[in-house]
Amino acid sequence: METSYDETEDERQEKRGCFECCIKCLGGVPYASLVATILCFSGVALFCGCGHVALTGTMTILENHFSRITADHAMLTDIVQLMQYVIYGIASFFFLYGIILLAEGFYTTSAVKELHSEFKTTVCGRCISGMFVFLTYILGIAWLGVFGFSAVPVFLFYNMWSTCAAMRSPVANLTSIDSICVDVRQYGIIPWNATPGKACGSTLGDICNTNEFYLSYHLYIVACAGAGATVIALLIYMMATTYNFAVLKFKSREDCCTKF
Question: What gap in Å lies between CA 165 and CA 79, rounded to an integer?
Fold first, then answer.
């Protein structure tokens, strides 16, 4: 019985040691950077994926209903293709940038320094951390612009959808639905000489009932939400990188003080 009691105590000591080790390891995780990375990846994926498909659907709607002559929307086609290539670049860049910021968060968190007492700061490390702070602020401002720009197609599609909903409403009391039109030329999407340039009455209703319109409208909403999530992620990154840079500055002063 006594031997059994000793074995139980040894097992408890071993479990306690494993538990304390796990707590220390979990304490070294930069949770702010981890949450920001997950949010950034999700937001960029939604914005890039949904935006790419929505742009394709928008061009299909324009070519079939608003600008049947290819020469009238040739410039718009080139711009849309360029934007789709830019989307590929954005997705690749933020995938790498998110991983780099997460790695930087692991190496500059205060919990990691407690686990590795030999941690020392260098001028190069402080410069790199400061560069991340500056670059993250710039990207945050840029994504605010992207978020505002992504709301424009949502507004345009909402106007068309609300017009179609008004035509179908039984309380609208409309004498002639052919007088209700949506002219996309007034938004500057296609030139004024594009034909037909606008859709009225039943033609407008048919456009709103197409799969391209329904899918593009909701994809633009999701893309806009993804851009907003990316802005929030970059704000978290700003706080995390600024804190990390401040910790590095403090550590460098501490190292200088210990030398004298």
Answer: 31
Q: Residue 92: count other Cβ atoms within 10 Å of its Cβ.
A: 12
Minimal CA–CA distance to 109: which of 256, 255, 251, 257? Answer: 251
| pLDDT per position as a tens digit, 155-204 | 999 988 888 888 777 665 566 677 788 888 888 888 888 888 888 888 88
The DSSP secondary structure of the chain, one letter per residue, reads: -HHHHHHHHHHHHHHHHHHHHHHHHHHTS-HHHHHHHHHHHHHHHHHHHHHHHHHHHHHHHIIIIIB-SGGGGHHHHHHHHHHHHHHHHHHHHHHHHHHHHHHHHHHHSHHHHHH-TT----HHHHHHHHHHHHHHHHHHHHHHHHHHHHHHHHHHHHHHHHHHHHHH-TTS--S-GGG-EEEGGGGTSS-TT-SB-EEEHHHHHHHHTSHHHHHHHHHHHHHHHHHHHHHHHHHHHHHHHHHHHHHHHHHHHHHHHHH-
Residue 46: phi and psi, rounded to 5, are: -65, -45
Checking if the pLDDT of 21 tops 80, the result is no
Q: Which amino acid is at 107?
A: Y
CA dist., res. 260 & res. 257, Å (int): 6
Give the C-alpha separation, 213 to 221, whole Å.
12
Cα(53)–Cα(51) distance, integer angstroms = 6
Measure CA of the first residue to CA of the last residue in the chain; give whole Å.
59
Q: Give the global pTM.
A: 0.80
